[in-house]
Amino acid sequence: MEEILMDMAQDPKCDPDLRFKSAKTILELTLPKAASIEVTMEETKLTKDQIDARLTELLAKGLGVTQD
Fold first, then answer.
1. What pLDDT sits at residue 41?
2. Is 56 inside any structural domain?
3. Most CB atoms within 10 A, among 7, 16, 26, 47?
4. What is the pLDDT at residue 52?
5. Angle, nearest 10°, between helix axes 16-30 and 2-10?
6. Domain limits for position 12
7. How far apart, in Å, are the Cα atoms of 22 and each of 1, 28, 30, 33?
8. Is 38 part of any domain?
9. Residue 2 has pLDDT above 60, yes or no
10. How far apart are CA 22 and CA 7, in angstroms?
11. How many domains are there within the chain?
12. Which residues have a Cβ under 8 Å from the Cβ of 50 and sit 6 or more positions away?
C-alpha cells in the first residue's frame, strides 16, 4: 500500500489533490502522532523561611554537605 501511495505522490501526471492526499496518508502511516500530557500539582504555599530551608537542604544534598 505504501509503495502505491508513494508512486502516486511522486507522479507529476497525477492530480495535485490526489498527490497531496497520498503524501498525507504516507505521513500518517509512518510518523507517530503527537500526544498530550496533563500535569496536575497541588498548590502549596510556603513561607520565605520554609523556601530558604528547603533550598538549603537541596543544595547541601547536591553538594554532598551534611547539615548540623
1. 74
2. no
3. 26
4. 92
5. 140
6. 1-32
7. 10, 10, 12, 17
8. no
9. yes
10. 9
11. 1
12. none
The answer to whether residue 26 is domain-embedded is yes
Higher pLDDT, 48 or 62: 48
Handedness of CA 17, 23, 25, 28 (dihedral sign): negative
- Measured CA to CA, the distance from residue 49 to residue 31 in angstroms comes to 49
Which grid cell is 8?
502516486
pLDDT in tens, 3-59: 899 999 999 999 999 999 999 999 988 888 888 888 787 888 889 999 899 999 988
From CA 25, how far away is CA 17, in angstroms rounded? 12
| Stated pTM of the model | 0.46
7 inside domain = yes
